[in-house]
Design a protein that fits this description.
2 copies of one chain form a homodimer.
Chain A (H helix, E strand, L loop, with lengths): L3 H10 L6 H12 L3 E3 H11 L5 H13 L3 E6 L2 E6 L5 E6 L5 E5 L4 H11 L2 E2 L5 E5 L6
Parallel strand pairs in A: 4-7
Antiparallel strand pairs in A: 1-3, 2-3, 4-5
Helix pairs in contact in A: 2-3, 3-4
Chain B binds a DNA duplex (30 and 30 nucleotides) through helix 4.
Chain lengths: 139, 139
Amino acid sequence: MDDYQELARRVRAQGGRMTPQRQIVLEAISALDGHASANEIYEWVAARAPAVNRATVYRVLRFLCEANLVAPFATDGVMLYELVGARPHHHLVCRGCGHVEPIPAQALDVLVTALCREHGFQAELRHLAITGLCRECRQ
Amino acid sequence: MDDYQELARRVRAQGGRMTPQRQIVLEAISALDGHASANEIYEWVAARAPAVNRATVYRVLRFLCEANLVAPFATDGVMLYELVGARPHHHLVCRGCGHVEPIPAQALDVLVTALCREHGFQAELRHLAITGLCRECRQ
DNA sequence: CGCCTTATTGCAAATCTTTGCAACAAGAAA
DNA sequence: TTTCTTGTTGCAAAGATTTGCAATAAGGCG
């Protein structure tokens, strides 16, 4: 987990306030390997701060997404929330073993340029989750 | 909307049965420009067949997705359901005007081969929704 | 440090979505 | 057409997510 002061600064930069609830949600995601579902996050939080309400966790997650401290990405119907790190990236989600492999954003640059050239479309790819089979699960 | 007999045949090919509920859900999606949210579909169905239960609409949608008659794709947190047409494709969703532009699946082949070559990952891209700005909205 | 503004929270109720189970009905076979 | 099997539905209840509102408290200011 990054420095608390730094996170608080980024929250305030968005006109928001840093609260214990927002802090513990960030801690939860960090503790849960950097990415987790809303429910996993709530369970983790509730285990050490039972007073925190479920609705608050959902609202905090939405706020953190809008503040760009956390990024949502959809895998197989379930929405996962991930800490926004230093560099942008996407995900390869294996349908066999469930493993989530991050790949650098520039791996998709070839696609972005192709879309721009052929459709005049300026793609804004953020945390794309691509499902498929990883090397191991392909046997 | 395709021919009812043809749809019924495809449903039975999956070991399923064609029911009035499944038929009207397919009609609803067709009437709603070929893609709609679960709630939009339920509203449309409820307006002409009030006896159809909400739970049934959700179950029918899931069945149709598994039967490959309908494909789900996520845009901006909302799940949309789309009739599966003749050829596979993806979507360019403009964040400016909201326009949804279908593009042929092979437009992403370059990406699929790159992922396979560089990560040994066999991507299964189905109805990807790529957000960004279309030619017009880029001014 | 204490006050003030207003963003944020907790609570409860509203919505959206899923699930268990008994009754129903699609479609194959007689 | 009638019967039979079993996939589907409706209902109700559980679970997931959002929202309105009054009370709380973060953080700027004096």
